[in-house]
Here is the input.
Amino acid sequence: MNPMTALQDTPRGAFGVLSWRINAAVVAVLLALSALAWRSTIEHAHEMRDMAMGLGQIGVLMPGVMSARYLFAMWATMMAAMMLPAVAPMALAHLAVAKRRGDGVLPTVAFVASYLAVWSVVGVVPILAYLGFGQIGEDAAQSRWLPSLAGIVLIVAGAYQFTSWKSVCLDKCRSPFAFIMTHDFAGGIASAARAGIAHGAYCVGCCAALFSVLLVVGLMNLFWMTALFLLVLVERSWKHGLVVAQVAGVVLVQAGIVVILQPAVLFFLASI
Here is the structure.
């Protein structure tokens, strides 16, 4: 069977190429790894619930005391928790193509691992933000510039949902077979790893603006982590994902404006 002719080139279509047993096995492995990562993430979140890890928590919670290395490991675990379920259709498409080439399962493992590696590297941004939070005094909570900065972050994150970059990157994430066939030419582990890096880069282009919301409400805020996880999953999996993304964009822009005009809303959002 030619994977490119199987059903439509959509996330749902990726489940129609391989047998249900293989689909179930791949999804089970990804969900099990995600569940383990979620368990660790939840434990970390509870340990740090009294630490200021977002603009809305400065002056309300005590400054954080984590090392950059620890925060990086925490971020990598959180990304595994949030992104492994979303990458399932792409992993199935890659496995279908790899099996057709006679490559086996290892290239697909390399594909997923390199994809997660890209998201781990992105952790440099929240690490720098966290270190910056530690330099902001508690009196900033009474200032106008802090909620203004937080509001701008939300507005930019929302506006990005309407950009061509968002649309292009989301389309790459929602067309698994087209992506694999155009980014994994040679086959084998090295080619799969390069394709995983490319997919990770497109995924960052699709979702990183959304994750900037955590810089406002707290990097380890479980409520907002869960909300973003569900939003990303719906964006990438549902046929109306772009509409959902733009609705989320409107909400974020409006929330940013409200935060600027009513600073108390910032601290409310960060306390949920």
